[in-house]
Amino acid sequence: MIVRGVTYREATLDDAELATDLMTATYPALGHDPVITRLRWQNLREGFAAGRFIAELHRSPVAFLAWLHGPWDEVPDRHCEVEVWLDRAEMDRTVLRSMWSWLEPHALAEGSQVLLAYAAEDETEALEVLADLGYKKERVERVWELDLRVHGSRLIEEAAAASAAMSALEVRLITLADWDDPDRESRLHQLDARTRQDVPHSLTIVPETLSDFRKRMRSPDRPYDRFWVALRGSELVAMSYLRFPPVRGPVWTGFTCTHPDHRGRGIARAVKLQTLAQAARLGVPTVQTDNDSENAPMLRINEKLGYRPRPGFVEHHKRVTN
């Protein structure tokens, strides 16, 4: 499908800020940070491939489009993520459909067999266009918001009580900055890699290399003095951190996990509470988090902590043949 006046060009690294602006204009409720976008583009994960494009309507940029996939020898289902961000000020179903249709053959040319696309539950146009193009709803990522202006004082008290309870179990809750283990990044990587696969999923989760993990850990949105770990003796048993965008956008929970051998003792809740209490003390107004709809333990924790649901993201799949 061709729409008159719409043209496409490859995006360069210098377009990272423009792409971020377009993504934010598409879904303003959850803004994106230009510094983090640029770093992500600069540090594409080892073995991954990506295509990025700017769409212009009558020579004015109106959308950002992209495809991304992991190394095929590690992705047996050969899925490729595709995304179209059309500025809401220019929203038109015909234009949006034409952009998804334009992007699809670029992803297929990579040898993809499954196209993976997301749309928020309140993005009516995107949901309708994806359905029209043959994408099927596969999973739902629940999104939650915690108002620290309302719950901050309570969470600070609960965090202190949780820390005391952990001390009784000989578990210490400290920041990464206060953990003096010289091998801490490698140990965090091992815990991260071990627990990522426990997240409910339908498609392959490609293990992250230690090099890529270290780059992500040193991103400016996750300072070490706001990254919390749980230690039992010298053993790393859990971690939780928030992502603080340096320019704009909401503060998000990055990841919370507990080693399987130490689950069922309230450690995940305790370490997550430290991140939230710290954010409250810093004056952060709200914190966002997301969890797969089948991740019942974390959903229960979120609800008890005071999170309230907001529109989540629907994961769509389109199976294709090459």
Write a structural description:
The two termini are 21 Å apart. β9 and β10 (251-258) form a beta hairpin. The chain has helices at 16-26, 34-42, 93-108, 124-132, 148-168, 184-196, 210-217, 267-281, 296-305, and strands at residues 6-10, 49-57, 60-69, 79-86, 114-120, 136-147, 171-175, 227-232, 235-243, 251-258, 286-292, 308-319. It is built from nine helices and twelve strands. α1 packs across α2 and α5 (148-168) crosses α8 (267-281). The longest helix has 21 residues, at 148-168. The chain is of the alpha+beta class and 322 residues long.
In terms of topology, how is this protein built?
Blueprint: E1 6-10, H1 16-26, H2 34-42, E2 49-57, E3 60-69, E4 79-86, H3 93-108, E5 114-120, H4 124-132, E6 136-147, H5 148-168, E7 171-175, H6 184-196, H7 210-217, E8 227-232, E9 235-243, E10 251-258, H8 267-281, E11 286-292, H9 296-305, E12 308-319
Helix pairs in contact: 1-2, 3-4, 5-8
Low-confidence stretches: none
Largest sheet: 12 strands, mixed
Q: How large, in whole angstroms, is the Cα Rg?
A: 21 Å
The tally of beta strands, per DSSP, is 12
Shape, per Cα inertia axes = globular
Give the ordered list of helices and strands: EHHEEEHEHEHEHHEEEHEHE
Task: Give a short summary of the structure.
With 322 residues, the chain is of the alpha+beta class. It contains nine helices and twelve strands.
Task: Output the keywords.
12-stranded mixed sheet; 35% helix; 322 residues; 9 helices; alpha+beta
